[in-house]
Specification:
This protein has about 70 residues and is mainly α. It has one domain. The protein has helices at about 5-30, 35-65. It is elongated, with a radius of gyration of 16 Å.
């Protein structure tokens, strides 16, 4: 893959993860929906997906950095 595509993809994934975490924060802390056990299980799963998304974005940026500019 070319380097600019990796950089743009990595940044897009990081910004999407930021938006995802903002929605997750507002759903749990601001609106106090964490009182229900089933919702809490969903929040834990969503947090895991957010962490994996963040790691994926960082890996894309690291791969772009390792490519030699041509």
């Amino acid at each position: 893959m070319n380097r600019p595509l990796l950089v743009v993809s990595g940044l897009a994934v990081l910004f999407t993860t930021l938006g995802y975490c903002t929605v997750l924060y507002h759903a749990t802390v601001v609106h106090h929906l964490a009182d229900q056990a089933s919702f809490l299980a969903g929040v834990i799963a969503a947090a895991l997906i957010g962490v994996l998304s963040f790691v994926g974005g960082l890996l894309l940026l690291i791969a772009a950095r390792r490519q030699s500019p041509k």
